[in-house]
Amino acid sequence: MGSIEFKGIYKSFGDKHVLRGVDLTVKPGEVMFIIGQSGAGKSVLVKHLVGLLRPDRGRVYLDGVDVTDFTEKEFYPIRKRCAMVFQNSTLFDSMTLVENVMLPIRKHRKVTDEEAHSQAMEQLQKVGMQRYADRYPADFGDGMRKKVAIARALTLDPEYVIFDEPTTGIDPISAAMVDKLIRHLADNLGVTSIVISHDLRSIFGIADRVAMLYKGELAEDGTPEDFKKSTNPVVQQFIHGRPEGPMEEPN
Ligand SMILES: Nc1ncnc2c1ncn2[C@@H]1O[C@H](COP(=O)(O)OP(=O)(O)OP(=O)(O)O)[C@@H](O)[C@H]1O
């Protein structure tokens, strides 16, 4: 239960070859970080999981099932099992925080409003936002809004969660809280996660494994310890944040 497998994924947009044969397996309950420069294709890769993008070549397996050629309709249940928290996951400004979190519950679960409210409050509590339930998104900064977007993504008890830069642009305490939540989902609920991140503190704090994308391929795939010890100059440049090295400025 809960594995993810990308096999030989190629994806181009016009003459831009973003992915050139990516093989990556994520085991059930694992927290896999995907790192790489801006524009390396991290978001493009994970969008293949839920059919938001289709590969030019290669296969995608979820829980051992080949979903590559699934129709849009066949992807609906997959999207319930696999939640995505995008970089700019937006909340509805006209709704309170708890109303935002209630949305997927109302849509997918046949429960009373009272029950939906109580389930949404439980999710808000997980991210430490329950006391602000009746306030509006505009009252908060990016960090707190991100936590609510995460709470909303978790409402349907997904087996997989994809986090796209969950700690970018948020304060260190909120970031640590998000990290703790990701680890909690894996360790206590068996959730399989992919986390796209540039945040070295998160990577070395909570990752089980790390995969680095470079020039459309995996430059390295291993534990955080493997990354520290890696002699690959691209890996070393990234984890030490050095301006000089084989990686150029992203275009
Ligand atoms: N739908 C699309 N149409 C055309 N080009 C796209 C599309 N989606 C992504 N790209 C291009 O693919 C490349 C990889 O984008 P992607 O968003 O995966 O980068 P990333 O590694 O997630 O970077 P970042 O860290 O900046 O989020 C970029 O050059 C982007 O412009």
In short:
One of its GO terms (molecular function) is ATP binding. It is built from nine helices and ten strands.
3D structure, described in words:
The protein has 251 residues and is of the alpha/beta class. The protein has a domain of 164 residues: P-loop containing nucleotide triphosphate hydrolases (Rossmann fold, 3-Layer(aba) Sandwich). Helices cover 37% and strands 24% of the residues. It has nine helices and ten strands. It has a six-stranded mixed β-sheet. The chain has a four-stranded antiparallel β-sheet with strand order 2-1-4-5, with no helix packed on it. It is globular and about 55 Å long. The termini are far apart.
Layout of strands and helices, then pairs:
Blueprint lengths: L3 E10 L2 E11 L4 E5 L6 H6 L9 E6 L2 E2 L5 H10 E4 L11 H12 L4 H14 L15 H12 L6 E5 L7 H18 L2 E5 L3 H7 L2 E6 L2 E6 L1 H6 L3 H8 L11
Parallel strand pairs: 3-8, 3-9, 6-7, 7-8
Antiparallel strand pairs: 1-2, 1-4, 4-5, 9-10
Helix pairs in contact: 3-4, 3-5, 4-5
Bound molecules: adenosine-5'-triphosphate (ATP).
Adenosine-5'-triphosphate (ATP) binds next to helix 1.
User: What's the CATH topology label of the domain at 4-87 and 161-240?
Assistant: Rossmann fold
Can you say what the CATH homologous superfamily of the domain at 4-87 and 161-240 is?
P-loop containing nucleotide triphosphate hydrolases
User: What is the CATH domain class of the domain at 4-87 and 161-240?
Assistant: Alpha Beta
Bulk shape: globular
Strand content: 15-25%
Helix content: 25-40%
End-to-end CA span:
39 Å
CATH architecture grouping of the domain at 4-87 and 161-240: 3-Layer(aba) Sandwich
InterPro entries: AAA+_ATPase, ABC_transporter-like_ATP-bd, P-loop_NTPase
Keywords: ATP-binding, Nucleotide-binding, Transport
GO molecular function, one term: ATP binding
Protein name: ABC transporter ATP-binding protein
